[in-house]
Amino acid sequence: MQDSSFDLSGPESSLQMCIRCTVSPVGLNQLGESLCEKCFSAYRGFRCQYGGNTRHSITVENFLNQRPIHTKSRESVSEIEPLPGFLVGSRVMQDLLEKVAKVAKSDIPVLIQGDTGTGKELVAQAIHTFSPRVSRPFVPVNCSTIQSDLAESELFGHERGSFTGAEQKTKGFFIEANHGTIFLDEVHDMLPRTQAKLLRVLEKGEVRSVGSAKTSNVNVRLITAANVDLYRLFKTSKFRQDLYFRLAGAILEVPTLEERKEEIPSLVKYILGQLSTEVFAVDSRVMDVFMEYKWPGNIRELRQVLWQATVFAEGDTIELGHLPRRITSVV
């Protein structure tokens, strides 16, 4: 009987020549194209080689036979290979990556919008990595986790004794990110008072720590993210209009997993590799379910489902019985 599992480890394929420099290849990128040792190393170790499977042959072949959807020359795109976890196997993700490459060259503020779990921080990291500030700090800050009474202290620092519990001077996230990039996630949760302080930083390029009469100059690249429509918030007076237009120098929309379903096989392989378990295959019926499910939690939900499944799996293959009922109910 033919094995119905969808093997994600995959046998070694017969490789041709590196697509970037015509040297003998050692691996494949996520689009199934050959890369030499140097290019493959720069590519952060991504490989997308899949074993044969009759039930999913169309899905897998379509994925591996894709070629880059480029509007520019191959040379210009080869300079912006994705980071780990930033897989590009669909037109919407290719379009996003090209926009990332463009905004990364300048210091224009970037607002990243997308549903929860779509990977907005990965996009921010990619912008920083492709920018001239790559050797400088990248400081991610989740605004929703900062206590409201400590927001200014966390962002801009404080002097010793400036408030109860301030036993020593702190620099704040903006000073820590000086000459680098600061990423403010869930920026829509920022209180109006803090929004006003942030606006001053953007206008003056300086911060004033809590309890200090002096200002400090800062040179930071600002990237923000929101899982709500920030434009609608300012239209309903729930977010400062002047700050919105400062933040939204360039707006990037991160697609949902539903909009990039053709990438699910590669995402499953990548996540299983991250989990570092002995599980490296999924039953073909599981892949059918994954392709049908709507994934409201996006990639974060996919990771959670795979994590649970690897715990319950008794061998090297994830089967339907290892999935949550909400997932299997789609069939």
As a percent range, the share of helical residues equals: 25-40%
Mass-distribution shape: elongated
Low-confidence stretches: 10-16, 29-33, 40-82
Q: Between the first and last Cα atoms, what is the distance in angstroms? A: 24 Å
Average pLDDT works out at 78
**CATH architecture descriptor text of the largest domain:** Orthogonal Bundle
What is the count of DSSP helices, taking H or I runs of 4+ residues? 14
Spatial ordering of strands, largest sheet:
5-6-9-4-10
Structure write-up:
This protein is of the alpha/beta class and 331 residues long. It has 14 helices and 12 strands. The chain has helices spanning 37-42, 57-64, 74-78, 91-104, 120-129, 151-156, 173-176, 192-204, 230-235, 241-247, 264-275, 284-292, 298-312, 325-328, and strands at residues 5-7, 25-28, 34-36, 110-113, 138-142, 181-185, 206-207, 216-217, 221-226, 250-253, 281-283, 317-318. A 5-stranded parallel sheet has the order 5-6-9-4-10. Strands 1-11-12 form a 3-stranded mixed sheet. Strands 2-3 form a two-stranded antiparallel ribbon. β2 (25-28) and β3 form a beta hairpin.
